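can u do me a favor
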């Protein structure tokens, strides 16, 4: 029996769900600290240029592949050219690897949200609190289970009633919360220096690394090269304008990232008396520095609640897209029902997520090529698989099925205005840039060339 494929009801549902996937932890903690580190305004400018050229091209290609084939990643590449089915399998690995550890971090976010709600915010600001929490054997695992359970419930409810509905509720909330916190943050005493630091181009910090960092961030932030946009594209109706949808998703994603910078950089500046080193703490920024910043402010507990609620919403809509992508592949590939597929995905998630969590505590001595489980999964997916998949996607579209196949699909909904740009970027610019990202991130990881 042919199962009727799920679909989004229309453009808004699609755009909000895809934006929900794109806006995630990466926008909120990673973007601001990269911007601060790589030259403020100049980073923002480079990011923007890359988003409208490189990001636009890759995203529209993926969505069109999904819509044309009506299938998730594995089936989609196969349907377009049998010899290239392997790209779909490679792409499918990425969300399988990311979802478990992303959910571990999602669990930490819920923990902090609860800590702030229950008024123990000053506790969360104490030195060593975060390290002690993630090292525990059971508590972080329980929060991880809660996070993944909420994700699974939404996915179980399906594309229209689950994902679309929740995105339509959550995404407007996310915008409002971001604006509230950004306004609060830039009006703190001493914050204006932080605002200036964030938006003024600092040409001294500009180098090729700025471009590479912006490009790597763009990939991750737009949820590219992991089959997500292919899957969501396969749920898109043929008459929807694909080009303007992509523009709207990009405006959303970049807008929230920019606002996140306005929330975090000025607040951290005001707190640290202008010490930019406070921004460069990686994940520690969100779980260590910010709680200290909140603890030092008047009304900080409430701001902390609002902030972690915002992060939770952002992380949840992203994890939903990750899980949906895998569930959809299992449904297409093994002819499973949505429910069977969800159960299978949950099992994989537990198997990979629990070690990721325990890797900060009782399994801390186990490392893979010198990394903890979580760092290793992050490295394999972001630094290795994603550039490879996107490179292959460009070659596939540029030289195998040809850009015209994609342009024709896009033209079904409306005239494809940036067709020329698309063709040049997918054939020449993007493959070269991606090889540069891959090489530089490998060299960086192995300490040969520090980004
Ligand atoms: N795009 C998300 C972010 O910016 C991250 C993400 C990665 C989401 C992979 C889903 C899948 O945080």
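np, heres the sequence
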């Amino acid at each position: 029996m042919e199962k009727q494929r799920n679909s989004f009801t229309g453009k808004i549902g699609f755009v909000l769900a895809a934006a929900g996937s794109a806006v995630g932890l990466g926008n909120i903690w990673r973007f601001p600290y990269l911007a601060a580190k790589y030259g403020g305004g100049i980073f923002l400018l480079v990011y923007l240029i890359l988003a409208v050229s490189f990001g636009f091209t890759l995203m529209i290609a993926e969505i069109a592949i999904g819509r044309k084939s009506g299938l998730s990643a594995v089936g989609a590449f196969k349907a377009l050219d049998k010899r290239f089915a392997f790209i779909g399998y490679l792409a499918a690995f990425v969300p399988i690897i990311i979802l478990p550890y992303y959910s571990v971090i999602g669990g930490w976010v819920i923990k902090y949200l609860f800590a702030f709600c229950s008024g123990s915010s000053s506790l969360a600001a104490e030195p060593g609190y975060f390290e002690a929490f993630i090292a525990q054997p059971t508590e972080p695992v329980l929060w991880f289970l809660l996070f993944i359970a909420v994700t699974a419930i939404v996915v179980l409810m399906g594309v229209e009633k689950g994902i679309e509905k929740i995105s339509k509720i959550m995404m407007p909330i996310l915008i409002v919360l971001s604006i509230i916190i950004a306004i609060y943050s830039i009006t703190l005493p001493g914050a204006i220096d932080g605002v200036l630091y964030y938006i003024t181009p600092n040409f001294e910090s500009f180098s090729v690394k700025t471009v590479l960092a912006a490009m790597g961030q763009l990939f991750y932030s737009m949820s590219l090269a992991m089959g997500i946009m292919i899957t969501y594209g396969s749920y898109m109706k043929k008459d929807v304008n694909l080009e303007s949808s992509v523009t709207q998703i990009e405006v959303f994603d970049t807008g929230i990232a920019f606002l996140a910078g306005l929330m975090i950089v000025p607040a951290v500046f005001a707190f640290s008396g202008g010490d930019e080193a406070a921004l460069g703490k990686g994940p520690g920024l969100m779980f260590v520095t910010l709680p200290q910043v909140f603890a030092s402010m008047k009304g900080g507990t409430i701001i902390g609640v609002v902030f972690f609620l915002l992060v939770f919403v952002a992380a949840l809509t992203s994890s939903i897209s990750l899980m949906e992508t895998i569930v959809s592949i299992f449904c297409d590939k093994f002819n499973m029902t949505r429910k069977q597929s969800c159960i299978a995905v949950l099992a994989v998630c537990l198997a990979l997520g629990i070690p990721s969590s325990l890797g900060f505590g009782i399994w801390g001595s186990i490392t893979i090529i010198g990394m903890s489980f979580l760092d290793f999964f992050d490295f394999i997916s972001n630094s290795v698989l994603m550039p490879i998949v996107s490179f292959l996607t460009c070659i596939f579209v540029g030289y195998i099925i040809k850009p015209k196949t994609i342009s024709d699909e896009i033209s079904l909904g409306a005239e494809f205005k940036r067709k020329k740009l698309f063709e040049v970027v997918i054939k020449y610019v993007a493959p070269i840039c991606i090889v540069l990202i891959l090489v530089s991130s490998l060299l960086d990881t192995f300490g040969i060339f520090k980004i």
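The pocket of phenylalanine is lined by residues 21-22, 24-27, 98, 220-221, 223, 226, 318, 321-322 (CB under 6 Å). hope that helps!!
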